[in-house]
């Protein structure tokens, strides 16, 4: 990865046209060929960028550009379109290259598989007297995350999401329609479980007779919250 801090201006042309006036920015050139321009703000999002496949050429500036203080001209051309990013560098304050190696990727904590495993082990969170039938209960349209029995012997289908939105409620609705056709399972009621359930999803679930359960991931995995203790 190459990191360059420089006063620069940039112009993007192709499917859209955009211009960045002269200012000090961070330029990132990654090993996959992508080039990104960042300001000191805006969180993770670059001001402008070119995604691979693309090629970077470093050119000498024209006489007119030299008079304006330009020391380098970067031309980044996309290989499958007419998109082009032209960057004029003025004062270069930093230029370094770093070998980062192969990145293992982001390992998410609290993904749906973890939540499913924890809820299956703590099925009492559905209510006292509930028992687990099985995880990943197969159906013709995909597996139901958890199938359980309530104290009265009724069947409960649980759909688990990290962030519960309307799509998750619709998915559970389709499972319930199918499961309720099975005389050995019917009647089947649904529970929509997530770490966070959006208001619209809760309204839709309630309207369809589906229960909602907010999952506290830290509590489920036994993380001690010192703020909740008296001593």
What is the compact description of this entry?
By secondary structure, the protein is an alpha+beta fold. The protein has helices at about 65, 110-120, 165-180, 200-205, 215-220, and strands at about 1-15, 20-30, 35-40, 50, 55-60, 70-80, 85-95, 130-135, 145-150, 155-165, 190-195, 210-215. The mean pLDDT is about 90.
Structural features, described:
18% of the residues lie in helices and 41% in strands. The two termini are 49 Å apart. Strand 1 and strand 2 (18-29) form a beta hairpin. The chain is built from five helices and twelve strands. It is elongated. It has two domains: 2-97, Protein Yojf, Chain: A (Distorted Sandwich); 112-220, Trna Endonuclease, Chain: A, domain 1, CATH 3.40.1350.10. Helix 3 packs parallel to helix 4 (199-207). It has a seven-stranded antiparallel sheet, with no helix packed on it. A five-stranded mixed sheet has the order 8-9-10-11-12, sandwiched between helices.
